[in-house]
């Protein structure tokens, strides 16, 4: 059978990254091989995100670029999947008539059939059925392409209905995967060379609750016992579901990284209530104190939304106050964006775009101060790094590498490729002395077990 080429553009969160990997695997039997060239592709799939208006605009601007290609290349198939596909369904054909297939977030299992039908019958198809049961096994082919890190989705959907959020509508009800299946998938990834696993879900710490399969902390304990796995991360946790058992995991589980992403969204109790977040500012701070009590150097990051409908200057000041009190390691912050279906779209007292922009700018400026300060504190420390590969700035004359600390800081360093490979064959994590800090990363020098510094790195870069 002739090899055909598949180009996937993934927009959105890590769950879409995981889904795109599954899509590529599930289409292998149809002889589709991944390519990074749009021109070469016989099938282009856009895996989309609907979380904010901007993300949706990104989808349609990319699709716009494809209409010319479609005219030029006979037989080219264009498919739209993911959250915008789930949300818009066949309306996508009206806006972009050259699209052949629209498939939803739970239609991935059926993709081989759907693509085959488009190929042979040359007809346009929409499949956005949300089904309670997903046969995850069909999607596995556990070969890893040499990466040290991998994502594993442990639950799908969300039942929280935060009033600003589109996820429950586009990803369906919360469904936890069977823990045996998850453990099997992780073991297979570890056997293929993966060292760090990130467990994914919109609300990972409510894992198992709805189906009574096992609690999240029980799952973590079992993952921690997998031989050969060095690090465990998870995202995203909901503050309302931070249990004492989970807090204790940060003290007791040797492989669990010292980082938690715990989105607060707002520091105002009035706004948190309107958002349907089910915790107060005080309860949130209490959880942070517990986490720091169990693991004093844990890195804490968060998401914030500014300009939620009805957010007054006083509400906004409460958010700034929360940021000051927690002293986050880093945050993501967004201007509130109306989403179809989400309850807040109908809320009154919308905040003007200008005001949202101003609030976002000031909030990010405030956090910048803490991020820089916390990064500076790393200078002089020796940190264990999991090497992920060549750094983004890699060029031919210099060997620059990148990895992360347990606290999820990016660390770049220079080292001769052969020396590094030799070290990595014996030690999976390497020690790096941090020498410089930047706004989004750190720079370090490798210290090998025999305490000799990496000479190439030292010669070129030591401060
Ligand atoms: N499940 C996770 C995150 C989901 S989406 C959680 O509960 O935290 C990632 C982030 O996007 C959210 O944390 C929120 O800060 C932001 N977000 C979601 N909907 C939004 C909207 N309508 N406008 C602006 N930001 C939004
Ligand atoms: Fe959206 Fe809230 Fe669910 Fe997160 S917990 S995905 S913000 S509804
Ligand atoms: Fe976006 Fe869907 Fe993820 S809306 S954030 S890709 S769950």
Q: Runs with pLDDT <50, length 5+?
A: 455-463
How many domain modules?
3
Relative helix content: 25-40%
The Rg value, from CA coordinates, equals 23 Å
Count up the helices: 15
Q: Which superfamily, in CATH terms, is the homologous superfamily of the largest domain? A: tm_1862 like domain
CATH class of the largest domain: Alpha Beta
Secondary-structure arrangement, i.e. CATH architecture of the largest domain:
Alpha-Beta Horseshoe
Q: Which class of secondary structure composition applies to the elements?
A: alpha/beta
Hey, roughly how much beta strand do the residues contain? Answer: 15-25%
Strand order of the largest sheet: 2-1-3-4-5-6
Largest sheet: 6 strands, parallel
At the fold tier of CATH, the topology name of the largest domain is pyruvate-formate lyase- activating enzyme
Shape: globular
Number of strands: 19
User: Which small-molecule ligands are present, each listed once?
Assistant: S-adenosyl-L-homocysteine, iron/sulfur cluster, FE3-S4 cluster
If you average the pLDDT, what whole number results? 91
